[in-house]
Amino acid sequence: MLIKQLSTNYIIKNVVGKVITIKTARHSSVTISLDSKFKFNEQLHLAKPGKQNFNFFSSNLYLRYVKMAHSDCTQPKKICIVGSGNWGSAIAKIVGHNAERLDNLDNRVTMYVYEEMINGKKLTEIINETHENVKYLPGHKLPSNVVAVPDVVDAAKDADVLIFVVPHQFIRTLCATLLGKIKPTAVALSLIKGFDRAKGGGIDLISHIITRHLKIPCSVLMGANLAGEVADEKFCETTIGCKDVSLGPLLRDIIQTDYFRVVVVDDEDTVEVCGALKNIVACGAGFVDGLGLGDNTKAAVIRLGLMEMVKFVDVFYPGGKLATFFESCGVADLITTCYGGRNRKVSEAFVKTGKTIKELEDEMLNGQKLQGPFTAEEVNTMLKSKNMENQFPLFTSIYKICDGQLPPAEFISCIKNHPEHIYIPKFITFT
Predict the structure, then answer these.
(1) Rounded to an integer, what distance in angstroms lies between the CA atom of residue 89 and that of residue 368?
(2) How far is residue 120's CA from residue 127's CA, in Å, rounded to a whole number?
(3) How far is 310 from 270, CA to CA, in rounded Å?
């Protein structure tokens, strides 16, 4: 039962779908009807005692569906993980264990799995019988309460929290499938590191797409989190960007363990942008390794990459906080990805073998998509439309090499005379 004092006369008693029942000093009960965008309208109507409908104004777009029953601790939250690659499976291991031990989380965790045949058997059946994702996270047991589901609607329809961890190219299709099929009070957490193309050019943040299409709030999680090391339970940190700080404790409960430390910040867009842009820089680090140029050169690429990340946020997402770049989602994730991530690894092979990115994805990633080259293309489209390619020479040269417009050997020549030795942000605050 959700109890929230609105004023002396109004106390919210329960939330069911889009109807909120409240108790008043004058009436036994009344209901608030929410419109299709989950906003309260401006007028308050109390015509007669008993049950009746009225609308109550709030300037908060979602009003958190009156805290989305988040304050209602008597109902354990159901969790669905939308995605089951190596990162999705590593997170499923964490979420499953937390769901087993925490009273505020429902024990059963659903995980949407794109159905594939492995040696003549369905991947979902293998996961549910052996509790192991043998294709994307072999050698790591998943908790038995994590249930693989091949239909995304069946997996997500009852969830209070949706954790999205799929390649960013598929998010619009998934949202279209889920539209109208999930709880209106659900919240989302995106672990997707990448951008999507916006209509008319430019880029669209994944969390914005989820919120816009599904009409639910979406926070983000980014950090120096290599999936294999997280699955091995090696200590690391991560960052949750959450505009609504009231959701922070719930999201932290779902994700945090003694080896996976969570810091919650309210600079959501900067957290997400860092998670996407670092994959571009990691491709550059891979080129350096493939060319055998050494650690000093790689350090220069990382530094210049961080500088362009700060500048990109300052130009396109003003109002971010410089301190966010020093969280796990920023410099820590950048360093880790440039030394140990798949974008670096595949980019090194790209230089050494001369094979295409697609060929290397099939050979080295079991067909999973590499985020760096795709993100580089999306960013370049945005920079080109605003005639700003020359202001981001590192991002631009990495895109051109991935696209076959430049040979990898030209990479260092493109950044030797980088115009920004120290970039001073104009719109980013320091705290």
Answers:
(1) 14
(2) 14
(3) 9
Domain 276-415: which CATH class? mainly alpha
Please tell me which of 32-36, 209-213, 317-321, 386-390 the model is most confident about, judged by mean pLDDT: 209-213
As a whole number of angstroms, the distance between CA 66 and CA 73 comes to 14
User: At 122, phi and psi to the nearest 5?
Assistant: -65, 140
CA dist 414 to 6, 296, 401, Å? 60, 17, 11
Enzyme catalytic residues: 278
How would you class 186 by CB atoms within 10 Å of its CB: exposed for 0-12, middle for 13-18, buried for 19 or more?
buried
The pLDDT, as a whole number, for residue 244 is 92
Strands 105-112 and 77-82: parallel
Going through 9-135 in order, the beta strands assigned E by DSSP cover 10-16, 19-24, 30-33, 53-54, 77-82, 105-112, 117-118, 121-122
Contact 90, 81 (CB under 8 A): no
**pTM for the whole structure:** 0.80
Q: What percent of the chain has pLDDT over 70?
A: 81
Amino acid identity of 203?
A: I
CA geometry: angle 261, 346, 90, nearest 5 deg: 30
Cα(413)–Cα(401) distance, rounded to whole angstroms? 12
Q: Identify the residue whose tokens are 């038995």.
A: 144
- Let me know if domain 77-266 sits in CATH 3.40.50.720: yes
What gap in Å lies between CA 116 and CA 150, rounded to an integer? 9
Beta pairing partners, 82: 112, 164
Three-class SS state of 401 = helix
Show me where the domains of the chain are located: 4-67, 77-266, 276-415
The alpha carbon of 239 is separated from its chain's Cα centroid by a whole number of angstroms, namely 11
Reported as a pLDDT band with limits 50, 70 and 90, residue 369 is confident
Encode burial over 193-220: b for 16+ CB neighbours within 10 A, e otherwise. Answer: bbbbbeeeebbbbbbbbbbebbbbbbbb
Q: What would the two tokens of residue 72 be?
A: 């209602």
Mean per-residue pLDDT for 98-127? 97
Please give the pLDDT value at position 431.
66
